[in-house]
Design goal:
heterodimer, A: about 160 residues, alpha+beta, seven-stranded antiparallel β-sheet, B: mainly alpha, Four Helix Bundle (Hemerythrin (Met), subunit A)
């Protein structure tokens, strides 16, 4: 997959975190992965269809996920329950929606499949072919990962 | 409290309605999340669902009329975003009835509602304020 596909997702993440959470997001060095493996406890997996097909995974440490929802709601969160999961899913959905708009500037028409949120590490989401790119991201409330696996739809 | 002063766009009518929406969503989340018997909370949950369905339409209509009045260039995509959200609230309202106002579904709905509202007011609607300031401050 082209590294170019990562940028709209990174830019949207940065934008959405700034607007919704008042947080700055700094990116680390890209890593190539054979599989898409959730590296942290709270995960939102977004599907992409259209000219590009694949998935984008947001993997947050538990404490960071709870803090994100505390910032939004003004209420302390103690566990990743349906409320927290749903809010994390909607954040991923908004990031995906904005990224898809940015992709149209590169003449790529894509759509977002509503995200699935799951809790737990090490469950490999194996990709049929190709490799995924992991982008470590840093904020003042914790570090999280965005893993992108997208390929051009040749149909 | 969810509402932040930075969410104001500088149009009193819209700001008041946004503040009311944030207030209602905050109360809804508190109700859904506080400890206690779910059945006792049901009247409040039903009342908020009903309010959301009505007030969201009322607010979106006012916001769209205002955008028309100021010849807001992004009106069409704003209308689409509103329509999608109305549809989403209505879908949840239908599911709530079908699933007997389950606690889990109410938690899911309130999480989504909160994130959507913040994004819409903190980002999308801010562009209305920016447009007005650029135009020279025509306000209601």
């Amino acid at each position: 997959m082209k590294a170019d596909y990562v940028n709209p997702f990174f830019m949207s993440t940065k934008e959405v975190f700034r607007l919704m959470l008042g947080l700055d997001v700094i990116r680390g060095d890209l890593r190539i992965l054979e599989d898409m493996v959730p590296s942290k406890e709270a995960n939102a997996l977004l599907g992409v269809t259209g000219d590009l097909q694949g998935s984008v995974l947001f993997s947050y440490p538990r404490e960071m996920a709870l803090e994100m929802v505390r910032i939004m709601s003004g209420m302390d969160m103690h566990e990743i329950d349906s409320f927290v999961s749903s809010a994390l899913g909607e954040v991923a959905n908004i990031i995906g929606g904005n990224a898809v708009t940015k992709l149209t500037e590169s003449r790529l028409t894509c759509d977002i499949v509503p995200p699935q949120v799951f809790v737990g590490e090490y469950k490999s989401l194996s990709m049929a072919t190709g490799k995924a790119l992991l982008i470590p991201l840093r904020t003042s409330i914790g570090e999280f990962d965005m893993t992108v696996f997208l390929k051009e739809n040749t149909k | 409290m969810m509402w932040k002063e930075s969410y104001r766009i500088g149009v009193p009518l819209i700001d008041q309605q946004h503040e009311e929406l944030f207030h209602r969503v905050s109360v809804f989340i508190q109700t859904v999340r506080e400890k206690g018997d779910w059945n006792e909370k049901l009247p409040k949950v039903k009342e908020t669902m009903d309010f959301m369905q009505k007030y969201v339409v009322f607010h979106f209509d006012d916001e769209e009329s205002f955008q028309e009045k100021i010849n807001y260039p992004d009106l069409e995509s704003h209308r689409i975003a509103h329509a999608k959200f109305k549809q989403s609230v209505n879908n949840y309202a239908e599911r709530m009835v079908k699933e007997n106002y389950s606690e889990d579904l109410a938690q899911e709905f309130s999480g989504k509602l909160m994130a959507w509202l913040i994004m819409h007011v903190a980002a999308t609607d801010q562009k209305i304020g920016e447009y007005l300031r650029k135009k020279g401050g025509e306000q209601l």
